[in-house]
Every structure is written in C-alpha cells, then in structure tokens.
Amino acid sequence: MDAKLKKPKDFLYNRMGPWPQPCPEHPFGEASGVIHLPFSECFDWWLHIGSRYVFSLMYSPIAYLRGLLNPGLEEVDDAEFVDMLTKTMLSKFIKTDFDENDKNIFGDLLEQKDIWICDFEPVKVVKTFKGIFASATKTLLRKENNTFVPLVIYVDETDSVFMPTDGEHWCLAKYFVLQGGALCSTLVEHPLLHFPMDCINAITKTALPKDNVLFQLMCPHLRFTLYLEKAVLTFKTSLLKGKWWMPYAPYPGYYEGLRELLVQGYQGILNNASYPQYKYQYEPEYIVGSYGDFHQAYFKVFKTFVSKILDEIDDTEKFYIGKWADYIKSWQPDFPDGEKILANQELFVSTVAYFLFDVSVGHTVDHYNYGHMNIRKIPLRIRQAPPKKGMPIKMDRKKLTKYWDFGKYEMARRLFFDASTKTALINTQYNFGHRNEKLQKVVAQFKLDLREVDANLRAKGQQFIPLEKIATSIQF
C-alpha cells in the first residue's frame, strides 16, 4: 500500500489525537506543552494514578504528627555531605567547567588540581515566604583518588565564603547547599526528563500508524504521562502553587519564583557554565561517579534492543517516520529531521533509545533516589538566615524547620517525589503485529539483558533502584 493512503482508522486517535502547543504559562521559556487530551487518557490517569494521590492524602495527620514529635533537622557531617553531593542524583551538578563568576569568587583555588564545583545558582530566583530563607550557593570539592573532600562553600545571599574550620557557619552553610540541591534537583534538572519529551509522546500517538514498528516500540512507554504533565503545569492544586492549605506543598517560596526555576533549567543561565540551554540528547549526559555508571550501564542495553527492532522498518514505515521526525523537530529544534534520521541508522537508534531510556530508567531512578533521602538532612525550607562571614550565629537544629514544614515535605515525598511504579519496565508488553513472533525474541533478550545489568550493578554496590521498581513510562 502507498504510505499516503493510510486511513484515519489506522491511527490511534484517528489522527485527531494530542498535539503540542506553546506552554501557556511560559510560551517562550519552557518546553512545549500538551494541554488538550483525549478523554480516554484522562480517565486512564485518574483511575490508576490520580486515585492514589487522593487516598494518600489520608496519611497527612500522621506526617504532621511525626514532624511535631521530632522537630528540626539532623546533623550532616562532612563525609555524609560529600556523599550526598557525589553519590546521589545531586551528582548531576558536579562539574569541572568554571565561568568568570566562579573565578571572581574563588580565585586561585580553581588553579589547584582536580577541583570540581557544585553550583546551585538558580536558587536566586526563589522568592521565599516570610520567615523562610534560601540562598544560591557554590561548593568547591577536590577529588583525591576516588573520593572528594569539601574545600569551601560560597553563600550568595551574604556574599560569604566558608571553610570546614568555620564551625556553625560551615554547618549552616551545608544546609543551604543541600536545600539548593533539593530545589535544583526537583525543579531545574529533573523536569528536563519530563516536559521536553511531551511533544514526542503526543506526536508519536497522533502521527504514526498503529502498524508502524516505531509506534509499536514506543507505545507502551507513553502511557499516563501527558495528563500527569498537564496536572503539574496547569492544575490549581499543583504542589508548585504552594498554597498554605495544601498539605503537600513543601517548597520555600511563591509560585512565580518556583516556576522560574523550570525556565532556568530549560533556557539555561547566561554566563553560567553549569547551566547550558537544554538540547535533546542522544545518550545520557556525563554524571560523575557511580550514579553516572548506573545510567551508562542501562543505556547500552536500550541501544542494543532498539537497534534490533528498528532493523525491521520497511519503506512504507519510513515515510511516516520521516514525517514524525519533521513534526517533532518543529517543536524541539535539536531533534533530527526526517532526512537525517532516515539516512543515519546510528542516529535513529540513539534518538529513540535515549527517549525510551529517559522515560523509564532515567526518570524513575531520580525519583527513587531522591525519595529515599532523609528529608531531615536535605531541607526545602530553612527558618534561619544564611550565615555571614564575621557575624556570630547560634544554630539550633530543632528550630531550623517547623513541624508543618516536615509534614508538607513528607506528604510531597509520598505523593510525588518517591517512585510509585504502576507499570514496570521489566513487565512491559509489546505488540509487533505480523512481526510479533520474530520480535518477541528480541524483547525476551532485552529483558534478560536488563536483569543482567541489574545483577551486575547490585554486585558492585551501584544498584540505585531495583529493576522491578523501574517504571515503563513517566507516571509519577
């Protein structure tokens, strides 16, 4: 059949499915949004995902009681501080690129060997509530053999630099660094795994025929996502709104500043080497240490799997895949167009493999890792002003947060931050139509390879999430 003769019934939503549009809140600052969705996707989300949120709210009294019985923050010593920065999802922020502002602040320190920086400058845009404080920070670390040691912390709000010998000033500065890590992880870096993928999700559902092998490969990885993203970005009950009556809204400031963090993640920060403008990736970015090793190990399996599936494409399918890529590129400029993606099989495989990796492993492990951090050590709210060089302070950890700060944070963790897997990657079912018998053998090998990677990572102490917990799609 001529590719151009495909009928509306050959498509998932009769070619009337979801499509991207400029994000209503920030049309020029954020990734395109998908706002208008088929009823079936809304119903599916509410039945399987939204209902969990509603029932989870019943835990609120217990969360607040826990905060009341055990107020404040816990001590974070220097060794644990470094581990949190370099052996968790926060390691995404550890860089070796320095900009002019870094050089002005740290001077000759940057000339030493094996110096790394952890920059949480985006926190500058947060407008905090009364009695709550936040500050951008920059932390220098030196790598010694295979470990890091902290050198100094720069606190932007007070234009002060502190060293580990600075007593309580140093201890308080560490909390502001970790607060910056929590803010930048959840609202700057992690959203890049979410929202730029929405246009790919929507266009795949609408522009590819159901019998196209690319659609059949991607379809299981598209479920639940678009309505979830719509809820986060547009619902009046989104935790970003930060209303006082929301038992799950833990952030330290007003909506406008929090939303600006998403813009900074997508647009980048001018003259800051740690925050470039978003570009579509064809492999996971380099992440220092074991968290990065985890990502690379899984991505190799996806590339092998995708390459074997995409070997089966015929000429009719190529026509629609070319259009699919052109459509996506109009919304995501760094995406390869149809001509490039069909002329370069390696590029095609990497493009699709990264998408599948992103929405499953890359996304889930961030949630699982952050969701298992001790929220009494990585605060979102701090109720003491940041330290200033030369000014005496007295820090009482029990007063650094209120019990309701803990309650809101714990509820957000249970509802949104932790991984709540509904459909698992290892159980993903693919339907390849008339090629099913042949390609199911490829799927079976893919799952064997996933189990092998999981076992190897567990043996190395790098299993940041059990395989059974990794979700098929973005569903939390």
Question: What does this molecule look like?
Answer:
This protein has 16 helices and 5 strands. The chain is mainly alpha-helical. The chain has one domain: Lipoxygenase-1, domain 5, CATH 1.20.245. The chain has a 5-stranded antiparallel beta sheet with strand order 1-2-3-4-5, with helices on one face. Helix 2 (60-69) packs across helix 15 (403-417), helix 5 packs across helix 10 and helix 7 (198-207) runs antiparallel to helix 12. It is globular and about 75 Å long. The relative contact order is 0.16.
SSE order and pairing:
Layout: H1 39-56, H2 60-69, H3 78-86, E1 94-95, H4 100-106, E2 115-119, E3 137-144, E4 147-155, E5 160-162, H5 167-189, H6 191-194, H7 198-207, H8 213-218, H9 225-234, H10 255-267, H11 290-310, H12 315-331, H13 338-343, H14 345-371, H15 403-417, H16 436-460
The CATH class, by name, is: Mainly Alpha
Strand order of the largest sheet: 1-2-3-4-5
Query: Total number of helical segments?
Result: 16
Structural class: mainly alpha
Largest sheet: 5 strands, antiparallel
Tally of strands: 5
Q: Shape from CA axes?
A: globular
Count of spatially separate domains: 1
Estimated share of beta-strand residues: 5-15%
Cα-to-Cα separation, first versus last residue: 40 Å
Q: Nearest-angstrom radius of gyration?
A: 23 Å
Query: What name does the CATH topology carry?
Result: Lipoxygenase-1, domain 5
CATH architectural grouping: Up-down Bundle
Low-confidence stretches: none
Q: Estimate the mean pLDDT confidence.
A: 96
Helix content bin: 40-55%
